[in-house]
Amino acid sequence: MGLYSWDIVGFGYGNRWRRGRRLFHQFLNVNAVTNFDGYQRKHAYRFLSRLAETPEDFLDHAQLYASRGTESS
After folding, report:
1. Could you tell me how far CA 26 lies from the centroid of its own chain?
2. Residue 21, Cβ neighbours under 10 Å: how many?
3. 3 pLDDT exceeds 50?
4. How far apart are the first and last CA of the chain?
5. Alpha helices in 1-73 (DSSP H)
6. Whose CA is closest to 63, among 50, 53, 73, 21?
7. Closest Cα to residue 24, out of 4, 8, 1, 38?
8. CA–CA separation, 71 vs 15, rounded Å?
9. What pLDDT, in 10s, does the model give residues 30-49?
10. Interatomic CA distance for residues 24 and 11, integer angstroms
11. pLDDT tens-digit series, residues 16-31
């Protein structure tokens, strides 16, 4: 399996496609996405605060914000 083996678009219809669709729906539906609001708000405020303190480091701040992933800090 290659880099994009998780891509359900390329799956033929069947059990694998249904499992992939179920996972995507579970984590990416409108109601599930709202679970990330607090996380996104916290890191957006942190990004803006750092940007206000040192705007000349914009690229560093943007890179840090974009790479936050799923860590809890």
Report:
1. 14
2. 13
3. no
4. 33
5. 15-28, 30-33, 37-53, 58-66
6. 50
7. 8
8. 32
9. 887 788 888 889 989 999 99
10. 14
11. 888 888 888 888 888 8
